[in-house]
């Protein structure tokens, strides 16, 4: 379903206590958005926020930021009502390509890439969130043993991502091409897209990558 732009969505986000807009203009790093030093986990492309909120609820001692570049989707995310809405997350209306501008170096413990846009045309591969240029940014903002957790139904994107991580000297801590028929299913929090794909009988790929140190 195509989401409609409704007048005032941006202003709604600007005034919403759980939303952050234009973080690069705020004059402070997002690390300071919470009044504690808890580990930071970031989801790039959080959609309507199901995974973000459920994961934040399960892990009250971790600070979460869900980046969403579409104003219509970020609005839907901030507006949706969630039972037991946790305190430890923000929805950031912004493109995730500005991570190194808005976080201190080596300050993010984990980055989630859940069902990222597959960008199937080779001329668009540079937009993939696992393109080498993004991996270089993740290396700057992740702590030394920081991790990328990626899930996708798209086999082409998954194989491409595996080779990007390998070429860029990352260690693959886990890889499955059928998450829901694997032992890793137990701790899995489903995203909105994942629920839909699983209902359609699609297999879900997952990997966890960490930088290699000599
Ligand atoms: C296919 S949807 C998946 C949403 C959600 N992660 C899920 O699994 O249900 C991808 C979302 O990522 C957002 N997105 C894509 N590239 C992004 C980027 N560079 N920064 C922030 N959001 C992005 C899109 O606007 C879209 O809402």
Radius of gyration: 17 Å
Q: Write the element-wise H/E pattern from the N-terminal end onward.
A: HEEHEHEHEHEHEHE
Helicity range:
25-40%
CATH superfamily of the largest domain: Vaccinia Virus protein VP39
Strand content: 15-25%
CATH hierarchy: architecture of the largest domain? 3-Layer(aba) Sandwich
Low-confidence stretches: none
User: Count of DSSP helices?
Assistant: 7
What average pLDDT do the residues reach?
95
Provide a brief overview of the structure.
With 214 residues, the protein is of the alpha/beta class. It folds into two domains: 1-48 and 59-95, Vaccinia Virus protein VP39 (Rossmann fold, 3-Layer(aba) Sandwich); 105-214, Vaccinia Virus protein VP39 (Rossmann fold). It has helices spanning 9-15, 50-58, 71-79, 99-102, 132-141, 155-167, 192-199, and strands at 19-21, 40-44, 63-68, 89-93, 108-114, 142-152, 170-176, 205-211.
Structure report:
It is a single chain. The protein has seven helices and eight strands, in the order αββαβαβαβαβαβαβ. The relative contact order is 0.15. β5 (108-114), α5 and β6 form a beta-alpha-beta unit. The model has no long low-confidence stretch (mean pLDDT 95). It is globular, with a radius of gyration of 17 Å. 28% of the residues lie in helices and 24% in strands. The chain has two domains: 1-48 and 59-95, Rossmann fold; 105-214, 3-Layer(aba) Sandwich (Rossmann fold). The longest helix is centred in the last third of the chain and has 13 residues, at 155-167. The termini are far apart. Strands 1-4-3-2-5-6-8-7 form an eight-stranded mixed sheet. By secondary structure, the chain is of the alpha/beta class. Bound molecules: S-adenosylmethionine.
């Amino acid at each position: 379903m195509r989401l409609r732009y409704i007048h005032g969505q941006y202003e709604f986000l600007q005034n919403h206590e759980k939303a952050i807009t234009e973080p690069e203009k705020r004059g402070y790093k997002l690390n300071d958005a919470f009044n504690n030093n808890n580990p930071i986990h970031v989801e790039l492309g959080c959609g309507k926020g199901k995974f973000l909120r459920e994961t934040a609820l399960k892990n009250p001692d971790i600070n979460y930021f869900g980046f969403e570049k579409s104003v219509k989707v970020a609005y839907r995310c901030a507006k949706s009502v969630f039972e037991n809405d946790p305190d430890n997350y923000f929805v950031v209306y912004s493109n995730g390509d500005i991570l190194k501008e808005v976080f201190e170096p080596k300050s993010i413990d984990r980055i989630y890439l859940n069902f990222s846009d597959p960008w199937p045309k080779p001329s668009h591969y540079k937009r993939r969130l696992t393109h080498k240029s993004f991996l270089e940014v993740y290396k700057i903002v992740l702590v030394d043993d920081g991790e990328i957790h990626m899930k996708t139904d798209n086999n082409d994107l998954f194989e491409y991502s595996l080779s990007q991580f390998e070429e860029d000297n990352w260690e693959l801590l886990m890889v499955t091409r059928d998450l829901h028929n694997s032992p890793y299913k137990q701790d899995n929090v489903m995203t909105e897209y994942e629920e839909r794909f699983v209902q359609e009988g699609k297999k879900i790929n997952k990997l966890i990558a960490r930088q290699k140190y000599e």
